[in-house]
Amino acid sequence: MKVLITGIAGFAGSHLAELALREGADVVGTVLPGASTENLAHLEKKLATLACDLTEAGAAAAVLRTTRPDRVFHLAGASVVGTSWALRADVLRTNLEATYQLCEALRQHPVPCLVVSSAEIYGHVPESEQPIRESRPAAPLSPYALSKASQELYVGYYARCEALPLVVVRAFNHVGPRQGLGFVWSDVARQIVEIERGRIPPILEVGTTSTRRDFTDVRDMVRAYWLLLAKAQPGSTYNAGSGRAMAIREVIDGFLEQAACPIEVRRVSPRVRPLDIPLLVGDATELRTLTGWLPGISLRQSLADVLDDWRHRV
Q1: Is-contact 171 119, C-beta < 8 A?
Q2: How many domains are contained in the chain?
Q3: 171 with 251, same domain?
Q4: What's the mean pLDDT when you consider all of the chain?
Q5: What percent of the chain has pLDDT over 90?
Q6: Claim to verify: residue 165 and residue 274 sit in the same structural domain
């Protein structure tokens, strides 16, 4: 089986590539021209990559003609919520145009495709109505969330009206080694390592810490992607998450327990988002029922692995 992963050099893309290789697949992926492939350094002899800007007209079609995959996982695109207000035009153009071009390409090569969306599309949901089910209407509160909700509309049209075998997964927060900056786990871990090395004062700068999120290790998350595309019906949408809420302050405390020196925590305004949803936790019953998927990696292990990853990177 040949698998095409768009955005293969990204955080989740690189972990999905590892999983696909373990499953015996022939793996090929797209990489934005000029983007780093550091996440794939340990896999470079086991897979193939193609430089491709999916927002360019005909680029996705050319990739599908060249690679002729049996399955497609669409992970490419802008993924940082915090910077999406300042970069809203780029975020919307990148996520929507890439998805449109891929869907058009799939009309000529209609193979099963999983499109990775985000739980951010749900917006602010009262705590009494969480965990959130897939039937919850979208109410995006950031340009990033808007791009993902719009992306799902594109996918829904192509599944219904063009009969393409598309599946959507709404991923709740996923964490782990190789995640870039702009996400709280990586931002905290990077600062801790800089402090341990004596490069900055022993003060951890953070934003809002009362926010609670549904965190899943990325290695468990990509396993959900793999199982879903194998079993889900075209046109369906599934949540993927642990179903448990964890406060950002708990994440910080978990990292501080593993730090090599005492560190003060300080809230600073530049790290506070213009709008931060207080709670986001998902109901993944539909995913579990269909595939039997459950997270297997503890968040304590994830914390250790993220910190170790940054100690090797910095």
Answers
A1: yes
A2: 2
A3: no
A4: 97
A5: 96
A6: no
110 & 206 share domain: no
Note down the domain range covering 203.
Answer: 184-212+245-280+299-313
- Structure confidence at residue 70 (pLDDT): 98
Query: Which pLDDT tens digit goes with each residue over 111-157?
Result: 999 999 999 999 999 999 999 999 999 999 999 999 999 999 999 99
Distance CA 31, CA 84 (A): 21
CA distance 247 to 244: 10
- In a shared domain, residues 137 and 275: no
pLDDT of residue 274: 81
Q: Which residues of 269-308 are buried (b: 16+ CB within 10 A; e: fewer)?
A: eeeeeeebbebbbbbbebbbebbebebebebeebbebbbe
DSSP H helices, 82-142, are 88-108
Instruction: Report the distance separating Cα 278 and Cα 245, nearest Å.
Output: 11
Length of the chain (residues): 314
